[in-house]
Amino acid sequence: MQVDEFTTTLLEIHDKMTSTNKNEDIRLGLNRSEYMLDSETSSVLQIDYLIIISWPWLPCLLTMMNDKIF
Length: 70
Hints:
two-stranded antiparallel ribbon; 2 strands; Glutathione_synthase; Glutathione synthetase chloroplastic
């Protein structure tokens, strides 16, 4: 599986922990947050990831929004 360097490091830490500590049930949870701009209030709102997967074009808009804000 191809992942970014940060995720690769997390997976390596998880592998080391599971091989070192056999007495405890160790789990790795990776979560992410997505945001969208509310046009009525001009505020940034966190949205559920299940919503974001139905809008594949949204990351492009978020990138453009980020460029304008920052």
